[in-house]
Amino acid sequence: MPSLTYRLRRANLNRIESILALALIFGVIASMTDVLIGDRGLNTVYMGTVVDIFLRGMYLSLYITTASFALGLGIGFLVGWIRTTRTVPFKRLLRDFRLTSADASSHASSQYLLFGLSIVWTGLKYVVRRIMDGYVEIMRGTPLFVQIFFVWSIFIVFLTRMPERDLLAVLLAMTINTGGYQGEIFRGGLQTVHSGQVEAARALGLSRWRAMRYVVLPQTLRLITPPLTNEYIGLLKASALAFYFGVQELTYYAKQEAFSGHVFEAFILTSALYLIVTFTLAKVITMIERRYRIPGLGIQQAPAAGKLSRKETAASG
User: Nearest to residue 144, comparing CAs of 72, 223, 203?
Assistant: First the structure.
């Protein structure tokens, strides 16, 4: 186990690296701004007058992202759970049927009925799992813009009089897309929890759903919090595609203002709003992850300086 001095030094180095990285990013942005704008300068007065419009667009972007992500969360859990199920091979079912039929000659009709039901149930599970596999591969293998365009075209052709048609089309397409990605995230998280824990829970009398709820899911959620956060951030940035379909989100207003001659002001305001939201969200999720982490589960991070336990502080003294 690393010594306390090493962990303190490493925590300080991490802070210095973060500060240097932020300074480098802002330095590059400032240099690019100076090269592109030159003597023209930024019209800060104009930026102050339109910031309310950009905030309104940011609100709609967050609404689309959060709604689609929340709906996709349920889809992703079901898809991930289904994809973790395993079906019994047909040869094994046939072998077990032959063994049971050889041991008991009576009630042959009921045995054949049970054997037929087992085959139907196993085949149904296999087909559903394959459908979920295909759904995930289609979502991951095709661009989100193409998916939105496809759903939007269906709304245009068949639902011409629906109010808020464009917004609903984008919301539905993003929900279906993130459901596939979250399904893969949940599948990886559910398979990380050892199957022996599920067997122990079933041996104690818990049903399959209760074992999932009280044993598997609490561990899985702690493991998949970082990738789910990345998925939300990626979905937020992908919501900028909605402007192409007439949805008045943040990028829509940025395009309108850029065409009016304020290109750099619109770009800076848009980038700043996206950066503020994503950076704040990442920091909040990191704090939550550190607060509810289970010791020994997943990759452990060294505590930051000033966050060490009393035992470690006493040991250092």
Answer: 72
Residue pair 222/259 in contact (Cβ under 8 Å)? The answer is no
Work out the angle between the directed axes of helices 44-84 and 217-238 (0-180°, nearest 10): 140
Q: The dihedral of CA 113, 119, 123, 126: what is its sign?
A: positive
C-alpha torsion sign, points 66, 72, 78, 81: negative
Amino acid at 87: T
DSSP state of 262: -
Q: Rounded to whole angstroms, how far apart are CA atoms 151 and 166?
A: 10
Write the class of the CATH domain 42-316.
Answer: mainly alpha
d(CA 109, CA 294): 52
For 135, the token pair is 């759904």
Confirm if 168 and 162 have CB atoms less than 8 A apart: yes
Confidence of residue 71 (pLDDT cuts 50, 70, 90): very high
Domain ranges in the chain are 42-316
- Distance (Å, whole) CA 130 – CA 128: 5
| Residues 29, 268: Cα–Cα separation, whole Å | 10
pLDDT tens for residues 93-121? 666 656 666 555 555 666 667 767 777 77
268 close to 47: Cβ distance less than 8 angstroms: yes
Nearest-angstrom CA–CA distance, 125 and 82: 8
- In order, the DSSP letters of 50-119 are HHHHHHHHHHHHHHHHHHHHHHHHHHHHHHHHHHH--PPPHHHHHHHHHHHHHH--S-HHHHHHHHHHHH
Q: What is the CA radius of gyration of the chain?
A: 27
Measured in whole angstroms, the distance separating CA 41 from the mean position of its chain's CA atoms is 39
Largest CA distance in the chain: 96
In this structure, are residues 185 and 191 in contact, taking their beta carbons and an 8 Å threshold? no
pTM of the model: 0.75
Which two three-digit tokens encode residue 163?
């109010």
